[in-house]
Amino acid sequence: MAITPEQARQELARRELARRQEQQQPQQSQSTQQKNILPDLLKYAAATGAGVGAGIGVYKVGKAGLEVAAQTLRGILNLPKIVNVNKGSDFAKQVRTAYVQAHTEKVNKFGNQITELAKAQPNKVIDLSEFVKEITNDPDITSQTMSIFKKTPILGKILDNPATATQVQLKDAQTIINHLGTKIPANIRANNLDLIDAVNTVKAAQLDAFPEMANVRAEYKAFIEPYKNVKPYFKFNKILNAIVNKFGGPEGQVAVEDILPKKILKQTKGYRAAKNLSEIPQNTPFVGEWFKNIGGMLSFYPMISQAINVSQQMEEAKKKGMFTIDNSGNIVPLSKEDLMI
């Protein structure tokens, strides 16, 4: 619902009256204030049709708004990742690394045992057909990655003749692992999920060669199926959007929560909250004032003051119809750029 300048001035007058009345009453403790400010803001947002509840990613308003404060705080702290390309890129690498590391840790649990078995039986054969099928049928695999795979000793020949993938000797599998793990420049491998993950995939394929690894194989299978289901979301240039969209839906989100460590999961929630915050000005009047109230309550007033600079991009704001109120009660245009830190 649109807010007219007259309605805005009336709201400011109402708040000023409420502020004066509050000054005449005994001061509340800081903890009580923290419990009351945010719910009041949310009630006003609902009354004006602003939809701040959805905008800041609020999932629960219970416990007097404390969860709202926590979610908003995470969003505020993560805003730089949204507006700063380098910080966003670094964060994407961090999440992708944690994802692959989860696979590596699973493989490392049986890695030493597999290595010893392979040394004892170097001519034993394994089946790499699933791995070959995965990389040849992947629509997102880059030409650079496929070129590297084709130049990898043994693997290149298998790709030229996929029928041989079912009869790969363990010593040849080790040659593939050594090349992908040590011969590819680190700067190329760093952001390439397919290259990083290939070593783990070939190692895991060795499990099927040894009946004595049945229990480990069952545990690994329970991990790898959801891992592969969400893998496309962790590809280059896709992960940040996937975080915001909860990895395609509830099933994807649950799978990721079982894979990523808690610390990284918490950071992804903060990034999602920041993205929601960055979208608020498109349809929310008075957002600048709300941010200042929230920021002041959480002792983040300087950061929010920097973020909300109502003098920037005023003409663009007029076109978009976004406004805040200055200290004199005047209506001031607000642009999306005002949120940038």
SSE blueprint and pairings:
Blueprint: H1 5-23, H2 30-48, H3 52-55, H4 66-83, H5 85-120, E1 125-126, H6 129-136, H7 143-151, H8 155-160, E2 168-169, H9 170-182, H10 186-189, H11 193-205, H12 214-230, H13 239-244, H14 250-259, H15 262-279, H16 287-297, H17 301-307, H18 314-320, E3 323-325, E4 331-333
Antiparallel strand pairs: 1-2, 3-4
Helix pairs in contact: 2-16, 4-5, 4-15, 5-11, 5-12, 9-11, 12-14, 16-17
Low-confidence stretches: 27-66, 281-286, 291-315, 335-341
User: What spatial form do the alpha-carbon principal axes imply?
Assistant: elongated
Largest sheet: 2 strands, antiparallel
- Indicate the structural class: mainly alpha
Figure out the total of helices.
18
User: Percent of residues in helical segments?
Assistant: 55-70%
Widest sheet, order of strands = 1-2
First and last CA, distance: 28 Å
Count structural domains: 2
